[in-house]
Amino acid sequence: MYLFFDTETTGLPKNYQAPLDDFSNWxxxxxxxxxxxxxxxxxxxSHNYIIKPxxxxxxxxxxxxxxxxxxxxxxxxxxxxxxxxxxxxxVRRSTYLVAHNIDFxxxxxxxxxxxxxxxxxxxxxxxxxxxxxxxxxxxxxxGRGGYKWPNLTELYTYIFQSxxxxxxxxFFDVKACADCFFELKRRNQL
Length: 190
Fold this sequence. Notes:
There is one protein chain. The chain is an alpha/beta fold. It has a single domain, classed as Nucleotidyltransferase, domain 5, CATH 3.30.420.10. Helix content is 39%, strand content 17%. The chain has a five-stranded mixed beta sheet, sandwiched between helices. β4, α4 and β5 form a beta-alpha-beta unit. The model has no long low-confidence stretch (mean pLDDT 95).
């Protein structure tokens, strides 16, 4: 079973190499979404949660990117612990975790798990990063003679020759990531 996942956050970390218990460094989760697929690419289930802010605010400039405002999160959000316990249950029943820029999402979730004093089952999971695995497929110049990591929109556009309009919504990013992954597997490129 594959578990595809994504988060939307309050921003970016100041230092990507900081330890997960440096809580002031790591942004907070405002949305977490994931989908389970079998090895043939059949969709089993999806989950999508906006998180109710508890001790943090969602900056306006970030809300403009993912369209989750403080007011919306307070109205529609659920408790982070409840969402992460549900996520962890599905992580434990999955063979592979797949995400675009998985290192970022893994660290964001890892810091939240530490804040809540919950077990981190992501650390020992088998992981696939569609961003890192597709550098030589997309071959986007980085300006220094090599190739850059494609963002999810660039990867999706490369594969399907069209954009997906709901980028930066964790739920739609999960679907786009899964679509890219299974199409590349179908083409024997992954």
